[in-house]
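Give me the fold.
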Amino acid sequence: MARAKSSNRLFFAVTLSPKLTQELLELQQRYSAFDCKPVAPENFHLTLSFLGNLSDKLLEQIIDGVQAPDIAPFTSTPASLVYWQKSSLLALLVNDKDGLLARCKRHLEHQLAGLNLFHYDRRAFTPHITLFRQLESPPPLIEVELKNQILVDQLHLMRSHSLRGRAIYQSIEQWSLQQPGIRQQLLGSTRDPG
């Protein structure tokens, strides 16, 4: 009998602090009267790049082949709510005015393409945190004023799986952002395409 190939549903993401997670949970509670499916607080994240279903062998190649970009840790600010009717999502947009989130995304995807593991989506990147799924109709979009920012000091490779009908997201590897060294600052980075 042939053994089933293991498959991993993977994505790169930025995880959130407990304080910001608590604020987002309180924001969710303001929409509790709406018929929708809230994202579990432990699953709040900002997706950089969705990779899809990959084998254990490809997972190992990603872990071995990816390096963090030469970008110092930075913060991004949650901005405003948005409702996407096509996908029935209510999400919190994240400000990327310096383009550093997009640069992290490009860096990761460039490395994966170099490993012949990934052909990435060329659609515009809209950083966001999904709060609700399966909204039947557009909800009122309240003004959002959160005290906490998103600290981007690590990039996580996440695995998604289902347990008793619930989505579970688990960080299986992470790469720390670091301040580029003096030489890299003076000569420019050879690792980061963005």
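The mean pLDDT is 87.
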